[in-house]
Design a protein that fits this description.
about 40% helix; about 90 residues
């Protein structure tokens, strides 16, 4: 019975607190998706010379440090890096 009352009390308390079950806390601002933070990455934008949302090997300058590792970071082997692949590559350099 005590467990039921305690559980009911906790449920009522947290149900009235907005965002608690959505991963938010009163002392934190709402979390932003990782892709939204990197969406305007100036390095990615600069290297994506044709503005198609991907970086191809041919778009990298001849001495870019990512060039020798390109095929390793191109996880889906489509010949181009999306923003997520580029972000992972940047953490390796």
């Amino acid at each position: 019975m005590k467990t039921f009352i305690f559980t009911a009390l906790l449920t009522a308390t947290f149900a009235s607190a907005p965002g608690v079950f959505a991963g938010e806390h009163a002392h934190h601002s709402p979390a932003k998706p990782a892709t939204a933070e990197k969406a305007d990455d100036p390095a990615f934008t600069k290297l994506d010379s044709n503005k198609d949302g991907f970086i191809k090997k041919s778009e990298l300058p001849a001495k870019h440090p990512l060039l020798p590792h390109f095929s390793m970071v191109d996880k889906n082997k489509d010949g181009k890096l999306d923003k997520k692949e580029f972000e992972a590559a940047q953490s390796m350099l």
